[in-house]
Amino acid sequence: MNRQQVESHFDRTFQKLQAKSSPKPTQIRVASERLGLDYTFPGGSGERPFHLASIGKMFTAVLVQRLAERGAFTIQDPLVKFFAPAELERLFVFKGVDYAPQVTIEHLLGHTSGIADYFEGKTKDGRTLIKDVLENTDTHWTPQALVAFTRQNQQAVGVPGKVDNYSDTGYILLGQLVEKISGKSFDQNLADEIFLPLDMRDSYLMFYSEPANPKQPIQPIYFGKQEVSGYESLSCDWAGGGIVSTTDDLLKFSRALREGRLIRPETLARMDVCPHKFQPGIYYGLGMMEIRFKDFFFLLGGLPKVKGHIGILSTHLFYDPTTETHIVMNFGDTARMVESFKALIEIVSVLSKLKGPA
């Protein structure tokens, strides 16, 4: 296939997806300088920003690694070096033992600290925070309140370094660490370290900052049939995934990350190692996810592993190292995750047939 055939194929495929799912968004960007490809769906100007969900964890991890590279700490340092005992109280108690002194920054980055997950994790009374977010729509969740939710309603799930448990609570602590070390707010760190240097003019931390460009309405956000984009309770993300951005801005971020303009190549290489299983076919490392398509279906075993992150709203940011391609997608709905992964598989499969610029 040549570039024109690829773009025509993508147009037909994604137009069908959009027709089935409207008014839910289908936004896709596929770009590779090596392949001479820069594809956007839908085409045209006036791209609307969207909520990234957990793709934001990549940004948090980059901020942490930048501080580490400057010598502010090592990621092997214990949390107790930076947090007061009251701030970590009861967060890491497992079977009656408080493991807080053993928890390192690296444990939080790699979801191996044993801390519970406030967003989707079990609670003592069975009521999840997601249910609260959807019912109490005017609630503003501060980072402190999110950590307190875990402290008051959940229990640690294992011993640090010996358990894998994806945790938004852990990433809230990382955001607080960034603030403690830098002396600046988390949103200001995002602006100073990433958004402004990379000219990401439509990106900002929802509820905390504004974009450099005039602010636009964001794309609809669906939790199943419930449209939630106007809810104050969406403040439940913060450093775990509260960023709003565009496919264009995310492409700038992904390129800068892979070109060594944000963190050193050796640091990125360590982030890219993904030994821990999140779900079948999805593995994670230090703020990074890896998709192993063969785990979905054995006939997909010939597809390359891609690196990046997904979000609960069926958002994707991935890099295919075999074709040096950046893939950004927003499907804007918790119920479209399978559909979004089918699109990712289609993109990676087609790219493997594109040999170079037309």
Provide structural commentary.
- With 358 residues, this protein is of the alpha+beta class.
- The protein has helices spanning 3-21, 56-69, 85-88, 105-109, 129-135, 143-153, 168-182, 186-195, 247-258, 265-272, 337-351, and strands at residues 27-32, 37-41, 50-51, 93-94, 97-98, 204-205, 222-223, 226-227, 243-245, 276-279, 282-284, 289-291, 306-311, 315-320, 325-330.
- It has an eight-stranded antiparallel β-sheet, with helices on both faces.
- Helix 1 (3-21) packs antiparallel against helix 11 (337-351) and helix 6 packs across helix 7 (168-182).
- The chain is globular, with a radius of gyration of 20 Å.
Name the average pLDDT: 95
Taking pLDDT < 50 over at least 5 consecutive residues as the criterion, the unreliable ranges are none
Q: Which CATH class of the largest domain? A: Alpha Beta
What is the number of helices? 11
CATH topology of the largest domain: Beta-lactamase
- Into which percentage range does the β-strand content fall? 15-25%
Share of helix, binned? 25-40%
Characterize the main sheet: 8 strands, antiparallel
What's the structural domain tally? 2
Adjacency order of strands in the biggest sheet: 2-1-15-14-13-12-11-10
End-to-end C-alpha gap: 9 Å
- Encode the helix/strand succession as letters: HEEEHHEEHHHHHEEEEHHEEEEEEH
What overall form do the CA principal axes indicate?
A: globular
CATH architecture of the largest domain: 3-Layer(aba) Sandwich
Radius of gyration: 20 Å
